Amino acid sequence: QKEVEQNSGPLSVPEGAIASLNCTYSDRGSQSFFWYRQYSGKSPELIMSIYSNGDKEDGRFTAQLNKASQYVSLLIRDSQPSDSATYLCAVAHNAGNNRKLIWGLGTSLAVNP
Amino acid sequence: EAGVTQSPTHLIKTRGQQATLRCSPISGHTSVYWYQQALGLGLQFLLWYDEGEERNRGNFPPRFSGRQFPNYSSELNVNALELEDSALYLCASSRTGGRGYEQYFGPGTRLTVT
After folding, report:
1. What's the Cα-to-Cα distance from B42 to each of A15, B18, B77, B101, rounded to whole Å?
2. Where does the pLDDT of residue B99 fall: very low under 50, low under 70, confident under 90, or very high at 90 and above?
3. Does the CB of A5 have a partner CB in chain B at under 8 Å?
4. A32–B101: do the CB atoms touch at under 8 Å?
5. Which among A23, B42, B106, B113 has the fewest CB atoms less than 10 Å away?
């Protein structure tokens, strides 16, 4: 069973701090990794995609991928109350007709003013 | 660039009825995905359509079906509705080819079965 696991949280950080969200996956053939943000009652919004080992930065967000450890993380610098949401990790195995994302259950983040 | 659109926003049905949900992808996207998100639960993959054909489906009964039209829009049909079908139904679209797994979601249709 291909799985993606996330700590459900809630992860609570003070405003201005760095929030660190983690995700592990079981399928070593996974090649594409995504972080989505979902506000309560809303649809998921793509924040970051990462395909190669290492770090990828976009504004206050940094995604980190370590395929050897089957681990992907998202760092949010200078956290704001508006970052309070559920963060979903999704993983894809780019193989023909098995083209679907495997989703984690998400980590709830609360940024306290 | 217009995003993914879904209609209706809310849908209320009674048990045993049929529901039809519609989705229009981002211009240039040929793949459409359907997900179910029940309250407090994770995203459950329902169906993937690409170039008018069903490419993959999740672990849902056959009463969940759909199709993709020549303009790449899609509709999801749920027959013989059950109370547990009450959920947020999300449609996403992506490009085809390359790494085209970046899925962009519509606002969802909230289906309530009474």
Report:
1. 27, 24, 21, 19
2. low
3. no
4. yes
5. B42
β-pairing, B10-13 with A85-92? Answer: unpaired
Q: Does B45 touch chain A (CB under 8 A)?
A: yes
The span from the CA of A57 to the CA of A75, in Å, is: 9
Within a 10 A sphere around the Cβ of B49, how many other Cβ atoms? 27
Please tell me if residue B34 touches chain A, with a CB cutoff of 8 Å: no
- Nearest residue to A103 via CA among B52, B28, B101, B6: B101
Quickly state the pLDDT bin for A94 (edges 50, 70, 90): low
For residues A88 and A38, the answer to whether their CB atoms sit within 8 Å is: yes
CA distance readout (Å), A106 to A12, B61, B75, B84, B85: 14, 25, 27, 22, 22
pLDDT at A112: 95
Counted across chains A and B, CB pairs separated by less than 8 A come out at 52
Look at phi and psi of residue B83 and say left if phi exceeds 0, alpha if psi is from -120 to 50, else beta.
alpha
* Distance from the B84 Cα atom to the nearest Cα atom in chain A, whole angstroms: 18
Whether A40 and chain B come into contact, CB under 8 Å, resolves to: no
The answer on pLDDT for B40 being more than 80 is no
